[in-house]
Specification:
This protein has about 400 residues and is of the alpha/beta class. The protein has 2 domains: about 230 residues, 4-Layer Sandwich (Metallo-beta-lactamase, Chain A); about 160 residues, Rossmann fold (3-Layer(aba) Sandwich), CATH 3.40.50. Helices cover about 25% and strands about 25% of the residues. The protein has 11 helices and 19 strands. α6 links the parallel β13 and β14. α4 packs across α5.
Length: about 400
């Protein structure tokens, strides 16, 4: 059996892993976009995106675009496996960003093995990450076991289950692990619960709280909603977020219909097609009309494209004592559109921009838990500092893109 990291041994995002059995059965794990705009390419792989089919299946660990964003380029006759709700989020994200989505995929379910040509068995396990229902994958091939972690952490709302899942999986022969946080210091990640205790202070200090965060970070949405209710604020989701939360059947995910939860329909959607209106706007119209600004006490989720909407609130005297909470990776501030938005809102009576964020990726303490699997080989991907993993895990093998690893 052979493993090859086609992309990702020295970069974060856009990682592609190939696993080939002795019989020649081939699978791919993750097929997403590069995070760095300067190197973004629609990668072409013979037998996967062009030419005659050479791969038997593709597995996607979660809905972030750097893991799923290029699946529309995969040949139609190659099965693509995606967890049910990750697929829903991917499709909605594609619709709202005007990208073509691959609709032909196969659902995979946690702890349910998938047999590829009676040769490779892949079993997904639920793992904590800043993307809803993320998967780590156990691959059984040629009598060996490989754990592909996908992106993971242990500081979210499902974080306590990570160690239990590793115990359930038991010994593996190889681990392919993300190492996003290896480029940082060794500080332990703040938990989502601890983060929200700090956030509560801002909710108490300011009447209006604007929140700039990813709509796919469901743990964070849960936290902000609960904090709003605790501090007697109405909670308003932007239209995209409302579509995301409404697509999830989890009773713990705040969505339209929850107490004191409303929907803001940004002005940018006024000129959308009738088809878009009926499917993505009309179901939320009533929650938009119900918005109350009594006492100007509310929390509103915003996007960097909503400057005109904030101006409207400002001109109607609905911004009187406000802050904006920035709750994403700090590196996004370097993007021109985000930078411009954060600069312009200062003219709208927003007194302070506060950073409240905790990582969606494993810290050192969490990565160390992988030692319990006693793997013979550990391959770092999704990192710009793979060497650091040698000081954390046993039996680390540093490889380059396209290098063959035999097991």
């Amino acid at each position: 059996m052979e493993v090859k990291i086609l992309k990702g041994t020295n970069q974060i995002g856009g990682c592609i892993t190939e696993i080939t059995s002795k019989k020649g059965t081939k699978i791919i794990i993750d097929f997403g976009e590069d995070l760095d705009d300067s190197i973004k390419t629609n990668i072409d792989i013979d037998g996967l995106t062009s030419g005659n089919k050479k791969y038997d299946a593709v597995f996607i660990t979660h809905s972030h675009t750097d893991h799923i964003g290029l699946i529309n380029n995969i040949l139609d006759d190659i099965p693509v496996y995606v967890e049910k709700y990750s697929k829903k989020i991917y499709v909605l994200s594609s619709v709202f960003t005007h990208k073509k989505a691959r609709l032909k995929t196969t659902h995979m379910y946690f702890k349910t093995p998938i047999n590829i040509k009676d040769d490779i068995i892949v079993t997904p396990y639920l793992v904590d990450h800043s993307s809803y229902n993320s998967s780590m994958l156990l691959i059984e091939v040629d009598g060996k076991k490989i754990l592909h972690t996908g992106d993971y952490r242990s500081n979210g709302l499902k974080g306590n289950d990570f160690e239990l899942t590793l115990k359930e999986i038991g010994h593996v022969d190889m681990i392919i692990t993300e190492g996003t946080s290896l480029s940082k210091n060794d500080e332990e990640n703040e938990t989502e619960e601890a983060l929200m205790k700090r956030v509560e202070e801002a909710f108490k200090k300011y009447n209006q709280v604007f929140i700039l965060q990813s709509s796919t970070n469901i743990d964070r949405i849960v936290g902000f909603y609960n904090t709003a209710i605790k501090t007697n604020k109405n909670f308003i989701q932007d239209l995209f977020t409302a579509n995301i939360t409404s697509s999830l059947k989890d009773k713990n995910v705040p969505k339209p219909g929850f107490p004191n939860l409303y929907v803001w329909i940004p002005t940018k959607y006024n000129k959308k097609s009738l088809k878009f209106y009926k499917k993505y706007i009309m179901p939320f119209k009533k929650y938009s009309k119900m918005i109350s600004y009594k006492d100007n006490n509310y929390a509103l989720m915003v996007k960097n494209t909503m400057l005109d909407d904030l101006k409207k609130l400002y001109n109607k005297n609905h911004i009187t004592n406000a802050c904006l909470i920035y709750s994403m990776w700090n590196g996004y501030k370097e993007k021109e559109d985000i930078n411009n938005f954060l600069d312009k809102i200062k003219e709208l009576g927003i007194k302070e921009v506060i950073d409240y964020h905790t990582s969606g990726h494993a810290d050192k303490k969490t990565i160390e838990l992988l030692n319990s699997l006693n793997a013979k080989k550990v391959i770092p991907i999704h990192t710009t500092n793979p060497e650091k993993l040698t000081k954390i895990l046993n039996n680390v093998v540093l490889v380059k893109d396209d290098e063959v690893i035999k097991l």
